[in-house]
Amino acid sequence: MNVNKLKEKITLHPIMAILILVGMTILISGILAFFNIQGTIRKISPTSLEYNSSVTEVVSLFNIQGIKYIFTSTVSNFVAFAPLSSLIIILIGIGVMEKSGFLKTAFTLLTKNAKKNTVTFVLISISILLGIIGDLSYIILIPLSAILFQYGKRNPSIGIIASFAGLCCGTGINIILTSIDSSLLSLTQLAANMMDKNYIIKTSSFVIIMAFAFILIAFLLTQITEKYLVYRLDKYEFPKTEVEEEFSIGKKEKKGLALAIIAGTIYFLIFLYNIIPGLPFSGKLLDDSQVFYIDKLFSYNSFFSTGFVFIVTMLFVILGLFYGIGAKTIKNNRDLCENLGHSLDGIGKILVLIFFASILINIFKYTEIGTIIVGSLADLINHVSFTGVPLIILLFVVSIISTIFIPSSVTKWSIISGSVVPTFMNAGMSPEFVQVIFRFGECVTMGLTPLFTYFVVYLAFLEKYNQRKRTIRLLKGIKYQLPYAIVTGLVLLTILIVWYIVGLPLGIGVYPNL
Length: 514
Hints:
Blueprint: H1 3-10, H2 14-34, E1 38-44, E2 51-57, H3 64-80, H4 82-100, H5 102-111, H6 116-129, H7 136-151, H8 156-169, H9 179-195, H10 207-227, H11 240-244, H12 251-273, H13 293-298, H14 303-327, H15 333-340, H16 348-367, H17 369-383, H18 388-405, H19 409-426, H20 431-445, H21 455-464, H22 474-502
Antiparallel strand pairs: 1-2
Helix pairs in contact: 2-16, 3-16, 4-7, 4-14, 5-7, 6-8, 6-10, 7-8, 8-10, 8-22, 9-19, 10-22, 12-14, 16-21, 17-18, 17-19, 18-19, 18-20, 18-22, 19-20, 20-22
């Protein structure tokens, strides 16, 4: 038996790896519950500005009640699992764009005369900036980045890995305030008011340090991709017809592209007008019950938030349809209807992966293990006597570890903020700086944890474009992200320490020290 066959025999399929993690979660929850492991979670009351302490115990799955929960919640949890419906709907729009030829024409124009480094840098920069739309950026960008690199005659896996790295390593680097940042800011404000009832945090408090981190991280992730990752992936074999025949853009393609751009622009302007407040008949897609504009746009009940997947899908369908009409690749309604299902061909493996990932994430959350770990880490910060740089490093590491067990930023910060913000203010550091430390720490491990909802989407698309006989292992997906995480962690921690020591402004009129 040769080495490759031996490796194939011992290689764990991602589904089996997830099932092992499920089994470990059940077993560990039973052991921890048997020993009555628990944690105290301290949160601040918005009305009294005092701590409300609650004891959280590990919920065992290693009993009849636990097994019943797994069986009764699996189906409903899968149906409600965020990536499932979003991915299917977005792929319908991408299918129309790809099958009509719009993506081939557009991406060929974008990549034909562009340097490889430039394409990668732009992709990673967009990935970081696209954090403004939240988790949906993963659903939109991962499939499109694969197609971008494929039409650019490069391995699609490079695009998948680079875009996922940009999305994860840039998750806490937001020049423009996002809905997540707004929620975190509210928690930070609440914690700061425990120490100073008149303290006010501005929405422009982070713009300078975020802009610097954005440029530096985008550049470094590009270098990792082009100087390191490219040489560690297998050569991607394109069909001989694609290699031999050079795709040329003729009159029909140009006409189709022009029609698509015109139609897409009209659709976008109509949408844009409806998210601008204060104009005649405008702002219809905003939630007027909110205070901040970003919350009006992205609040849980806003039309934009609940309908954004369909809004983007309709844009993709319009671009593909009008291109097809102009280029004569869509001649009738039958062509259009067949194009709608193009990207859903072969999606079975992706759905199965998502199904098992939804089980793992659901039962781990149910056990409360993550909550207890994060609560204990927050309590650790509250009891140490560190100040200055050691305290910064401690919170940074706590954020890194916490993200592995609870990827949700708001959930983590609701547990941590009440303890750490007053501690840092007592050490002479501003609440804004504390939030930046927390956000930068998240960037390191967001792409390394299978408990992150969209990790399975990244893994599934790597497998989709995998030409080797061996499947893409779960650990292999993590290994691809590891260089990005290490560099991001070292760079962001260095930025934090330099900003603190030198006293550079975080934003307009805001500094690391009080």
